[in-house]
Design goal:
alpha/beta, Rossmann fold, two-stranded antiparallel sheet, 16 helices
Length: about 350
Amino acid sequence: MTGLDTLPESDPTNILRYRDGIYAVDLLTAAITEFQFFDYLAENPGTLKQLCAHFGWDKRPADVLVTLIKANGFVQEDEHGVLTNTVSATEHLCSESPWNLSEYYASLRDRPVVGDFVRVLKSGKPAHWSGLDEADGDWHGAMLSEEFAKTFTAAMDCRGVFLGKKLADAISELLNDASSLLDVGGGSGVYACALAANTPQLKAQVMEQVPVDGIAREAIEKRGLSDQVSVVVGDMFKDRWPQDCDVHLFSNVMHDWDTDDILKLLERSREALSENGHVVIHETFLNVDKTGPLPVAEYSCILAHSTQGRCYSVAEMSDLLVESGFEFESFQETGGDRGVIVASASELDSETPLNP
């Protein structure tokens, strides 16, 4: 359990940020060099919908791009959703300016991920994960391969030791009143293990598909927590969930999916939770007007590239929770640019039952 019930003396957030934001420069380069975005916006202020129509972009990755450039102060958005260049973009990212730096980015236009973003913006479909061949498919498909699943799950596991303890501290009061938890799409089970290590009475289950389920069992056993944490095999979108758990945890799950799939997960959660249960969503969250935080806007770029999701604002996630039959209770920051939303099960409208 080393590390799961203690925090390091130093904060690794800056180390996490280098990796999390690695694709932001490629998305910005695509906007500057392939679409001449800021030149167009200088003459044609418009909404996200209007820009998507002009450039032929899909809304999901376009939203990530707009969030990134808002967070950097390159564009501003008025109360009607109309985007315009700021002075910074006008002076340094438009071709008519004597201080234009667009050519500085042109030298990067042949980077493979820049080309990926051009395709992602137009199609809305994720690109292949860096280091994989096109034939291997995107990240979602690659996770069905045991070799890739082991490598990727190990990467997520190591960050979860720090992030899991911060999450456990943030929701300790809720956990102290709970006896059972389901970690949905929980990967190695590191978050379930962290919560269990800090809450002795808690029994947790990690729901994962093959082959990640086997990876999770091995990791849980190595941490000496097999008595508290078990694994249930299943596809979270298709298979039956364990019933009547007190808490459902989604840790770094929602950002891999678009809103329709998030709604499906929340609806399934609402049906399977205990009567007075809670859902806990642990994520990187944007602020209400999606102008930051900048590290979260940058992290959203790699998600737009390689998954079917992006980073969401607290307000966006709250709306999805309410639509799914939950009542938003709280949001607080945890660590590593992450935060946690807690929502409770509210009474369902009997005239509009949710799909199981």
